[in-house]
Structure formats: structure tokens, C-alpha cells
Amino acid sequence: MLAVFDESVAKCPEALAIPDSSESSCALKDGFLAQHFSSVHPDSVTINLGSSGFLAFNNVKQNPLLPRLFAVVDDMFCLFEGHIENLGHLKQQYGLSKCVNEVTISIEAYRTLRDRGPYPADQVVRDFDGKFAFILYDSSSKSTFIATDADGSVPFFWGTDANGHLVLSDDSDMVKKACGKSFAPFPKGCYFTTSGGLRSAEHPLNDLKAVPRVDSSGEVCGALFKVDSESRKESPGMPRVGSAANWSQNY
Fold this sequence. Notes:
about 250 residues; alpha+beta; Glutamine Phosphoribosylpyrophosphate, subunit 1, domain 1; 6-stranded antiparallel sheet; 5 helices; about 30% strand; globular
């Protein structure tokens, strides 16, 4: 799976970018990275998100233990890789009577968070018991919600290209193609939102500290992010609002 987002949708942490990286290119220019993905995966599907970026997906040669899924519901697009073990519990928690799978439960969890906000975003991620990584884009608010499990069970990488676009994929070579050395594994047990940036699901009130990532030749390539145990923010509070309200700017 692959996603590229414009800075207006997903502004990456400054520490992830490497200034003047000669190996990076523009992922969106002339459909560069989308075309490369299609050439590597001829049976893939690409979803153009206009000025916001694009999503790409294929289900060929996938790990049967970590299947890839894609769904669109009411202008919410979601790429999901992995599995959730407590689907039955989540189905009850979100009041779903229809058949659901991992990707649709991710969308419904986000919809509940966006429209009613009964849970903080970190709890939504913690409630998912399994091995997973997902990328969700809400075209109605031009917002993203991206997360991985606490163990980082699914290979998942991110980086920033020459124009500051955020690139995410389960294929490290795909991220390197656009980002050069400005790439790194997506932090374990963390989530990223348009309004809140990168946070730890296990320690949501603590800041994440960037640690330079050094390759085998001693060159800095992106950054790793660790929970800063000495920093702690006050909880912003999670007010309940009516379902008619859009709560996406507060999660």
C-alpha cells in the first residue's frame, strides 16, 4: 500500500526531513510515484485525491497473515494491512449490526471519533487488539488518521519528498524512491492526525522526541521517535458533541 499527502493535509514532523537531500524527488510531480507503483504492481489500483495526493493499493503476493484491505465509505478512504482479533467486541462497542471487517471497522471508529468524539484518538488505537497499520483519508474535511499497533508488527515506513509531501508505504523501497535518505520506520504504537500530528497511543500526554537515524555508512537518514518521559501535556479534554457536528479538527 502507498499514500502520498500534500503538506496541507499531512505536515510531517520537521525532524523527519533532511534538508537538501540530493536523493529525494517530488512524489506527485507528473504522477511520478504513482506510475512507479503501477509499474512494480501492474494489477494495482490508484485513487487520485486531487490536490491532497493519492492512495495506491494492490493485493497480489501479500502475506496471508497480514492481508491488505481497501474500502471507501461516505468519502472516507482507508488502506488497512494486518488483522484485528477483537472485531466482535469492537462491533458491539460501535453499535454495528452489519458484517464488518478490519478496514470497515477502522472507518466506523474514525467516523465515531469525528462526529461524536466519545473516545480520545489514542483510546481508539489502543482498543484495536491485533497486528495492523492503516492509512485513512477523509475527503470531506481533508484529514488523515494513520496508526500502527504497539509492536510495529506490520512493516510500515514514512518519509518526506523534495517538496515536503508525506509518503507512507509498507514497502521501504517505495518510500526511498521519493524520499531518499529522508525516510524511517513509522513509530511503533503511534498515530498521526492532520490536526494533532504524531502522538503515542500508549503515552498520549507525552511528547515524542526525535532521535537521528544513522545508516550503516554513518549518514543521517530520517529520524526515529521515542516517548519523552520528562515531558507531559495536560489532557485537552474530550467533549461530547452532537453527531451533526464535525469534530475532526479536535481529535
